[in-house]
């Protein structure tokens, strides 16, 4: 309308629109508008260039982003700290820390002082790559330079140490935040609560949830999903469903992640009718299941001996255009093998291949275990040979299954031979291996001689 009225939009107007397109991930629209600015001879500013460099970084075109900086300098514009931060963050997001460090050194060489965002991006990038000691060093350097870390920087360190399993260090950063007057965010608590649940420290997780309320914060959807998943993992279905109801009462909509956890706990508690009913209810609510949710339901039916019901779910997946993966088929194979239907499991492996899904070592170990439990050692070794022929090395599970099967067939000497092969491959036998061998040979002294 402005153009039709003969009004030339100001640079600031165009910058606002470019910034909006960037936030909305409308990358193509940003380039169209930038080209229009050039055509209408609307001057660019450092802000314009920074936005377009950010667009290039979002596209993963970091080399072109750096060329854009040189183009910008050629036009007489001096890149700002924001310019360098944008490219540095682009490298960090892609795990290219060497590239990020080059940008860091380059900006200092041009006399542009790094700010809190610069250091924060480097800390975050280091943490994501598991380089926590380096991240901590950069963090200290940041403070030495008089820059105040934000909650985002602290959260990156907390997340890194939670992922590593060093909860003591993670909590020390949270306490440091509080001492310095930097308020922890809901994300801070989410990471710590999740880490506590992963270590089965429910009591401490509950105390932290209480602290969230005392801080005047509202748990978000991620908080509830972490809690529900945590209680589902520990088998506390009642607590998990109470939290689901609490979510709804607070106007927080449960997601696929929420319902996958609830289906999982119902399956583990042998409540498959309720799991199926919940699955139907989810679909009626317009929440489309993904492969993870289907796998949880298939696993539940297989674990409860309902292999036919599990098999029918593959048809449902096809109907809903949800492609099965190797977990889907491995779960089905395990269910059929547990039910003694090893031939059916073999057909499932073939179907898996037909669909273009490559069987993994779990697929082959499942079949070997199935045949071994049934005493069909010829077929078990045939599968082992097939596994070797496509490049999979036997694992401890492979050898244990073969040893157990041979011992059941009273072929103790052959079993000892497999044990020797196992050790020669650098695989350490466990208690299960030795118990099977002692039972198979029937004489501890003779077993020790063979050993």
Short structural summary:
The chain has 451 residues and is mostly helical.
Shape: elongated
Share of helix among residues? over 70%
CATH homologous superfamily (4th level) name of the domain at 1-114: Tetratricopeptide repeat domain
Strand content: under 5%
How many beta-strand segments? 0
Low-confidence spans: pLDDT under 50, at least 5 residues?
none
CATH topology of the domain at 1-114: Serine Threonine Protein Phosphatase 5, Tetratricopeptide repeat
Overall structural class, as computed from helix and strand content, comes to mainly alpha
Order of helices and strands: HHHHHHHHHHHHHHHHHHHHHHHHHH
Q: First CA to last CA: what distance?
A: 89 Å
The number of distinct helices, counting runs of at least 4 residues, comes to 26
Largest sheet: none
Mean pLDDT: 90
Backbone CA Rg: 29 Å
CATH class of the domain at 1-114: Mainly Alpha
Reported CATH architecture of the domain at 1-114: Alpha Horseshoe
């Amino acid at each position: 309308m402005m153009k039709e009225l003969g009004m030339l939009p100001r640079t600031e107007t165009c910058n606002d629109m470019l910034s909006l397109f960037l936030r909305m991930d409308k990358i193509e629209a940003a380039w169209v508008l930038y080209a229009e600015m050039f055509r209408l001879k609307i001057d660019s500013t450092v802000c314009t260039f920074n936005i377009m460099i950010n667009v290039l970084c979002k596209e993963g075109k970091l080399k072109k982003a750096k060329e854009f900086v040189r183009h910008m300098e050629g036009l007489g514009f001096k890149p700002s700290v924001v310019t360098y931060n944008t490219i540095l963050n682009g490298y960090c997001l892609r795990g290219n820390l060497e590239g990020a460090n080059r940008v860091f050194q380059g900006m200092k060489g041009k006399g542009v002082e790094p700010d809190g965002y610069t250091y924060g991006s480097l800390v975050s990038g280091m943490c994501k790559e598991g380089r926590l000691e380096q991240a901590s060093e950069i963090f200290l350097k940041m403070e030495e330079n008089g820059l105040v870390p934000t909650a985002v920087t602290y959260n990156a360190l907390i997340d890194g140490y939670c992922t590593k399993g060093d909860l003591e260090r993670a909590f020390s950063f949270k306490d440091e935040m509080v001492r310095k007057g930097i308020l922890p965010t809901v994300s801070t608590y989410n990471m710590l609560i999740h880490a506590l649940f992963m270590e089965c420290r429910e009591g401490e997780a509950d105390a932290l949830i209480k602290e969230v309320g005392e801080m005047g914060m509202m748990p978000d959807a991620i908080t509830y999903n972490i809690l529900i998943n945590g209680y589902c993992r520990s088998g506390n279905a009642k607590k998990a469903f109470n939290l689901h109801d609490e979510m709804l009462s607070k106007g927080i909509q449960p997601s696929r992640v929420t319902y996958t956890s609830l289906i999982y706990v119902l399956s583990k508690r042998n409540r498959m009718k309720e799991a199926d009913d919940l699955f139907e209810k989810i679909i009626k609510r317009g929440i489309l299941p993904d492969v993870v949710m289907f796998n949880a339901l298939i696993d539940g039916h297989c674990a409860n001996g309902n292999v036919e019901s599990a098999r029918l779910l593959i048809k449902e997946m096809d109907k809903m255009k949800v492609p099965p993966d190797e977990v889907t088929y491995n779960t089905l194979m395990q269910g059929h093998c547990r039910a003694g239907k090893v031939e059916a499991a073999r057909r499932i492996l073939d179907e898996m291949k037909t669909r273009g899904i490559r069987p993994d070592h779990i697929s082959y170990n499942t079949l070997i275990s199935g045949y071994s439990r049934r005493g069909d050692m010829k077929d078990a070794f045939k599968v082992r040979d097939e596994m070797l022929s496509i490049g999979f090395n036997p694992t401890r599970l492979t050898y244990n299954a073969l040893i157990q099967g041979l011992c059941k067939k009273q072929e103790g000497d052959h079993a000892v031979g497999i044990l020797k092969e196992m050790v020669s491959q650098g695989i350490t036998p466990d208690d299960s291996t030795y118990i099977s061998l002692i039972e198979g040979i029937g004489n501890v002294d003779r077993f020790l001689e063979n050993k």
